[in-house]
Structures are given as structure tokens and as C-alpha cells.
Write a structure and sequence with these properties.
With 282 residues, the protein is an alpha+beta fold. It is elongated and about 75 Å long. The chain has two domains: 135 residues, Triger factor/SurA peptide-binding fold; 121 residues, no CATH class. The N terminus is likely disordered. The strands form two sheets. A five-stranded antiparallel β-sheet has the order 4-3-7-6-5. A three-stranded antiparallel β-sheet has the order 2-1-8. 48% of the residues lie in helices and 16% in strands.
Amino acid sequence: MRIFTFILLTSFLVLLEASVNVFATGYQVGDQSFSDQEAQFSQKIIQLSYPNADPTAGEQRLIRAFKKLQILQNNGRTVTQDDLDQESARIDAGSKNLDKLTKIKNIFGSDHAEYLRIYVMPVYVERVLPFEFFPAETSIQDKRQQFVHQLFQRAQADPYHFTDLASGDQVQIETLAVAKNGIKRVRSLKILADPRASDLKKLDESTVLPSRFWWAHVIPHMKRKGQIFKKVIEAKTGWYIVRYLGRNRKYIHYLKVLHVPKVDYGSWLDSQEQSITVTPIQ
């Protein structure tokens, strides 16, 4: 009898604990929090576009938004009332679906403060964090940029061991064949056996700096084989350290390039979110 009573009591406690988690009244996200009612507001916003949305979509939307709000705060960017008022005005002026925007506002009735907090703030942080704050915050790239300049100093000191610098995941090395009207990656270092300049015309340049950049800013300064270009080249996606390999008789120049990618937004965001705890409010 005692064993049965103990099992029954244990089962009851387990069910009670589970029910507490199910009926959480909101979430604490870092220093920020939102209520279950606010999650319901968020759910109604999502259902205007996706009527059959997952029932947790509203709270997940707010968790993502409050994480980004916390990240901005952690990095010295406080989101103020003025920021939200200006974002609200921007949304009003730029909306292409005024009927939907009116329905969103009606979810909150006369509570404009909640409208700003639950609708405008997520829109604001989703726009500002990746497209304004991240590109402009130079300190995000500082550590990697220091690493690049250390590589450059080592390349200058010992250009003949240039390829040895491509160690670790952060450094990519490739050989580029550059003509006035085209560029391509090549595997062979046998310069005279490589293609004619006319063969490079149709190369997709989306993943490297275009041939016109190398031809205008790098090739004119390269006078001898083995020479290291005079400075680190910074591009939108990363940095380049360049060693000249020479040219063939068909006016194709060959460059050995160390490429160090910049810290990308996704990786940075993941690293920032790791320090933010999300806890149900009971």
C-alpha cells in the first residue's frame, strides 16, 4: 500500500511540474521579458499572414526579437523610445499593405505602447542589427583583422614560404589567372601551360574581386616573381594577401592569394546568442 501511495504521489508531482512548464506565463530573455498575453498578440500578428501557423510561432518570434534587443544592449546600442517612434513612422510611411497594418494595430486596440513593444520593436531589431549595426561595428572584425596583419608581416618577412601561411580554417589559398577581360582560379602552377586571355572572358567573378580591380590596382605594381603586394587588400567579404607568380606569353598574370574571410553575420549572431539565457516565467 505504501509503495502504491509513493508511486501515485511521484506521478502527481511529475504531472504538476509538467503542467507548470506548459502553462508558463511568459519568458525571461536575458534582461528582457514578455508575458503570455504579449505572446498571444504576437501569434495574432503571424496568423494574419499564416492562419495555420504553429501555436508557438508567436512566442518564438518574440524570443528571437528580444534576443536581438539584448544583443544590441550588450554591445552598447540601447533601443530608445525615440527609436521605436521613428520606426513606427517609417513603417507607416513605407507600408505597401495599409489594410494589414491597420489590422495589426487593431490587435492592440488603444494600447500604443504595446504596439510599439510587440510589433514595432521586432521589426526594428530585425532590420537594424544585420543591416546597420553589424556592418558599421568595426570592433566585430578587430581580432580577425589583427590576425590578417600578422600574416602579412610574416609573408613580407619570408615570401618563399607563402603557402605555409594557409593553415587553419580561417585562411584560404588559391591561384588566380588574371587578364584584362577575365579572371579564373587555376590549379596548375605551370604558367606557360595555362589558357589564353580570351579563354577567361566568361568567368563568373561573383566570388572573387573582378579582373578590372586586379589589373588596375595590383598588376601594375608587380615587377618580379615572388613579390608580395605592398599592402593587405580589404574587400567587403574579407582580406587578401597577394604574391606575384609572373605572367605567360599571352599576357595572363598569375597571383597566389591568401584570403581571410570576415566574420559573417550568422556566425557572430550565434556567438552572441550563446550568452543569452531564455527561461519560462512560472
